[in-house]
Write a structure and sequence with these properties.
This protein is an alpha/beta fold. The chain contains 11 helices and 15 strands. Helix 3 crosses helix 4. Bound molecules: NADP nicotinamide-adenine-dinucleotide phosphate. The site of NADP nicotinamide-adenine-dinucleotide phosphate has 30 residues, from helix 1, helix 3, helix 4 and helix 9.
Amino acid sequence: MRAIQIARLDGPQAAHVVEIDEPAGGDDVVVVDVHAAGVAYPDALQSRGLYQYKPEMPYIPGAEIAGVVRSAPEEAHVRPGDRVAGLTMLCGAMAEVVTLPPERLFRLPDSVSFEAGAGVLFNDLTVHFALRTRGRLSNGDTVLVHGAAGGIGTSTLRLAPAFGAARTIAVVSSEEKADVARAAGASDVVLADGFKDAVKELTDGRGVDIVVDPVGGDRFTDSLRSLSPGGRLLVVGFTGGDIPTVKVNRLLLNNVDVVGVGWGAWTMRHPGYLQQQWAELLPLLASGRVRAPEPVVFPLEDAAAAIASLEDRTARGKVVVSLR
Ligand SMILES: NC(=O)c1ccc[n+]([C@@H]2O[C@H](COP(=O)([O-])OP(=O)(O)OC[C@H]3O[C@@H](n4cnc5c(N)ncnc54)[C@H](OP(=O)(O)O)[C@@H]3O)[C@@H](O)[C@H]2O)c1
């Protein structure tokens, strides 16, 4: 089979196509013919050895797939021929065939393409966990999201209204990314530069209930200042590079929370959680209440460029690579 392999840790350009043997099946795994694989920021970090999870070398990048079940154990909830999305978490996805335990596979509605399906799990389940489990989103809340034209960002803009948010404020770095955020459903879009004052004006000084922050860095303190009393700042990632520190007197003075969001770690400790999450998301996607992502699709041969687009900040929305 064809797959992408990374054999040295000097960045995305090391990702290249190889011919390798298909993985062996087994009594307790599902074999999937992969049509598309998602690209997420950890793929860029991993290619430089900078991510907390370090796969054995050489490795196949990618955390999520969509495809068709080739074979499955008798008792599995998916059958041969089923269209599925799956989580390889945190590598192994960019290959024409993968094997996965049944609990990492999720039936895809017919209305969701393989490309969209390959881009749905990693971000949407993280955002579901962030807003519902950790962020305590209530009906009528206003949600601000940084990096709003990125994978986590567009996912937040698509999902937050379906979970009850009355308003979403997207923070982006350019006018071009503002268009991406609007297309993903943002109520308002502001530029990162000076976002605190813009948010103050948009909310008549009240601030927002939730900040979803996949960026971190030097905007963290202004994010805290943008919260209304009782607000929650959800720490999702650090694409901005620096890991911010927080002076906890700010939390006390304004009655706000900084909340860690580590979805992968949570799923390891909560068996069945992934399937519970999908049970909530599936009807929203199938009914069209939440639109599927509309990813930028790269051919497999250009996987290096696909991963690099997240690192060099040129990615628009979700990025996937196509395998069939
Ligand atoms: N906690 C969890 O469980 C979890 C799960 C999944 C992902 N994550 C994390 O979430 C973060 C976002 O992932 P993603 O897949 O959404 O990434 P993405 O698609 O590349 O989006 C990230 C956004 O960050 C902004 N950004 C600001 N400074 C940047 C810089 N120096 N380099 C690159 N981007 C920069 C960019 O928006 P602007 O240009 O508009 O600023 C970009 O659109 C990553 O840190 C990832 O590891 C965490």
